[in-house]
Specification:
- Belongs to the 4-toluene sulfonate uptake permease (TSUP) (TC 2.A.102) family.
- One of its GO terms (cellular component) is plasma membrane.
- This is Probable membrane transporter protein.
- The chain is mainly alpha-helical.
- The chain has 10 helices and no strands.
- The two termini are 17 Å apart.
């Protein structure tokens, strides 16, 4: 990658980590479309690994507010979903995965704007966890199902519980992607270069949460996600 491309990715990762640290989701929604535009071969492994870093930091910060029971039921669905997602990574070409990223982002945004609010019970948590595993492992965008099922929770509880869920889920996805051979040397090199941007974005989230409420941050994440996905769709349609 050129220095300009690396700078673009660092800016996207910085913003993604800031949003994830503030509202508990959004890293994949924001970062994945930009990475798919700049260097699609890094997907989905790079975003999953970067997400593991920021979710670890948020889980530690919000550990007093975790809903461990709810996260456990969601993880029961996430693991089989992740296995299916890893199979999709090795079965689909890069262009198909890019379309999947855009489709997952726009579908998640659409459902959020429609205002669907399922009750976070055992069955809905397991179904959402499975969908998150499939989407997160195959496309690095797995936040939408969990954000929908856990919406309405107090901000600290939402951030902490979602981060704990995504931390375990991301680690499982990384192991499956490594077994599938997609955690390559370029991915590890990009991870090393972009990790400081993740830490900086997490630091920014502590400041943001003091001045912006969760609803406003959620709208910001959805707007950024929509813009990134539409840019990706435009590039795919133009054959670039």
């Amino acid at each position: 990658m050129s220095p300009a491309e690396l700078a673009i990715l660092a800016a996207a990762v910085f913003a993604a980590a800031g949003l994830q640290g503030s509202i508990g989701f959004g890293a994949g929604l924001v970062a994945a479309p930009v990475i798919a535009l700049v260097e699609p071969s890094l997907l989905p492994a790079l975003v999953v690994m970067l997400a593991a870093i920021v979710t670890l930091l948020v889980t530690i910060r919000e550990r007093a507010h975790l809903d461990l029971k709810g996260a456990g039921w969601a993880l029961a669905g996430r693991i089989p979903g992740s296995i299916l997602g890893a199979w999709l990574v090795v079965s689909l070409p890069a262009a198909a995965l890019s379309w999947a990223v855009a489709g997952c982002v726009l579908a998640g945004v659409g459902l959020a704007f429609l205002g669907w609010r399922p009750v976070p019970r055992r069955r809905s948590l397991m179904v959402a966890g499975a969908l998150s595993g499939i989407m997160g492992t195959a496309t690095s965008v797995g936040g939408a199902p969990m954000a929908i099922v856990w919406q309405g929770q107090p901000p600290a509880r939402l951030r902490g519980t979602m981060s704990a869920f995504f931390l375990v889920g991301s680690l499982v996805s990384v192991l499956l992607l490594a077994a599938a051979g997609t955690v390559t040397a370029p991915v590890l090199a990009a991870l090393a270069w972009l990790s400081p941007a993740v830490v900086a974005g997490f630091g920014l989230s502590r400041w943001i949460s003091r001045y912006l409420d969760a609803a406003r941050l959620r709208r910001l994440a959805l707007a950024a996600s929509t813009g990134g996905a539409l840019l990706l769709v435009a590039r795919l349609l133009l054959g670039g």
